């Protein structure tokens, strides 16, 4: 089947088998190695991308389901050259060790951070932990990740910016 995807702002039509997973298509056809596959069955959140702006597990999504949709991966959110504030907070608050889970956490939590900033409020730790409850980190523990989310929100609230 032919599928037209707008991936990180670039539209492309590709031919895929109907059983082909979005995670595999993004990694293999679009060369986006920031889409990590941990469990391949919806348990770890490593493969989280945004589909039309909402976090989605790309290992449980067929590419064919995304025809006509916009996909964003961690590559467009930020990187070494231009860190997203949440990525910077992960670094400063020790929210990662090996980093394998980090793209998934960042893609899951970036909209959460945006929403809380838009509301002008700092969530409590329970709310943050609930927001990231679909993501598993196998090495660093979760305290640093919660601290990173708090820092990313706090910095923006202090600046009075919604961007
Ligand atoms: S690889 Fe998709 S949830 Fe684990
Ligand atoms: S930092 Fe290694 S799995 Fe999370």
- Relevant CATH superfamily of the largest domain: [2Fe-2S]-binding domain
- The helix-strand sequence is EEHEEEHHHHH
CATH overall fold name of the largest domain: DNA polymerase, domain 1
Q: Which percent range describes the beta-strand content?
A: 5-15%
Q: What's the gyration radius in Å?
A: 16 Å
Order of strands, main sheet, comes to 2-1-5-3-4
Number of domains: 2
Contiguous uncertain segments of 5+ residues: none
Structural class of the secondary elements?
alpha+beta
In the CATH hierarchy, the architecture of the largest domain is: Orthogonal Bundle
Strands, total number: 5
Shape: globular
Any descriptors?
five-stranded mixed β-sheet; 6 helices; 163 residues; Ubiquitin-like (UB roll); alpha+beta; DNA polymerase, domain 1; globular; binds FE2/S2 (inorganic) cluster
Describe this structure as you would to a colleague.
With 163 residues, the protein is α+β, with helices and mostly antiparallel strands. The protein folds into two domains: 2-75, Beta-grasp domain (Ubiquitin-like (UB roll)); 85-159, Orthogonal Bundle (DNA polymerase, domain 1). It is built from six helices and five strands, in the order ββαβββααααα. It has helices spanning 22-28, 74-77, 85-92, 102-119, 125-131, 143-159, and strands at residues 2-7, 10-15, 48-51, 54-57, 70-72. Strands 2-1-5-3-4 form a five-stranded mixed β-sheet. A hairpin with a 2-residue loop joins β3 and β4. α4 runs parallel beside α6. The protein is globular and about 50 Å long. It starts with a strand and ends with a helix. The site of one FE2/S2 (inorganic) cluster (FES) has 10 residues, from loops.
